[in-house]
Amino acid sequence: MIQDHKEYFDKNGYVAFNNFIPDEDLAAISALAESIYASNLKKIGQTKESGTGEYNKKHIDIEARNHPQLYKYFTSTAMLRVAKLLLGENVFLFNDQFVIKEQDSAAGYFQWHTDNYYGARFGIMNSALAGTYKAITCAWCLDDLTLDNGCVIVSPTHSSEQADLATGNVRRNRSDREIRNTSVVLTASRGDLLVWNGNTPHFSLPNRTQNKRRVWLTVYSNQPVDSAGKYYSERFDEKTASQFHTSLGEFDSKCKEFEPGVPSSVPLIQHGSRGKLVKDLVRQSKLKIKKFMSVRGNDL
Fold it and tell me: What values do phi and psi take at 287, rounded to 5?
């Protein structure tokens, strides 16, 4: 039942809604993802007024603002139901973002972090840590997510008490064994929706398969964020939600339970250490070091 998903999320800081996105909607969003990605590649390094402020390969944000069909998915009644379930009655839009991982690209690496950490420049960090500001990141799985293609690995809320939740540094006062035994690999199937709390520490590795790994992230909060127009701040409710004539959001009633434990073959990268990132990933993923050195340091 849907209440099981709510209880699982509150306990662990993440939850999966299996078979959330029907095939026809997957096809539509995937086509938009490919078109947007191709256009974005032509603008790498150029200034962007919204989002992060620059076109880059790590993430493509605030695209729903320019694509009405995408905006309808972002503001669908299906997502309002999820957001209200996990955040409460007051829901606001904050961000949408494509993360498309090419094979063996350093841009596909994300260090340990919390999503709320990146909102610090908007003054939300203290309220996020106090629990008054809440946000959820919803990952629309446009492809299967596996360890090989760079799925997300989380440190659940109940096992992250010693972590620095402001930055996601799970290594503070915790051994590698403890982190490895308690962290969870969030594998998923195409069409699933994964959701995690803005305070949940997580990271992901590059894609080591022959195919792209595509995810669309939609972020919602329980109060508006003043970002001077760089991100969304609109109220999301029944009056603003978009209706769909598909089975979008009719997910499996049984709540998927993830087992903790990260394989020893997966490197647990030191938070914020670019040198260790290069060393570990070159060894573990057998990537060429020059690919890493071409990535801007503040992207890692």
Answer: -95, 155
Question: What is the CATH classification number for the domain harbouring 65?
Answer: 2.60.120.620
Residue 90 C-alpha from the chain's centroid: 21
Residues contacting 207, CB < 8 A, separation 6+: 101, 102, 103, 104, 105, 108, 148, 149, 150, 213
Q: For 54-67, how does the pLDDT look when each residue is reduced to its tens digit (9 = 90+)? A: 888 888 999 999 99
Domain that includes residue 199, residue range: 2-299
Query: Between residues 205 and 152, which one has the greater pLDDT?
Result: 152
Q: Cα-flanking dihedrals φ and ψ of residue 149, to 5°?
A: -105, 15
C-alpha separations of 250 from 3, 87, 193 in Å: 14, 19, 11
Strands (E), 49-146: 60-61, 92-101, 110-113, 135-141
Q: Give the three-class secondary structure for 206.
A: coil
Residue 194, pLDDT above cutoff 90: yes
- Residues 250, 254, 215, 93, Cα dihedral to 10°: 60
- Taking the C-alpha atoms of residue 211 and residue 235, their distance in angstroms, rounded to an integer, is 37
Closest CA to 134 of 237, 225, 20, 234: 225
279, 274, 297: which is closest to 289 by C-alpha? 279
> What pLDDT digit, counting tens, does each position of 108-166 carry?
888 888 898 887 778 887 888 788 999 999 999 999 999 999 999 998 876 655 456 66
The tokens describing 9, both together, are 């999320």
Task: Order across the sheet with 135-141: list the strands.
Answer: 14-17, 193-197, 135-141, 213-221, 92-101, 60-61
Q: How many domains does the chain have?
A: 1
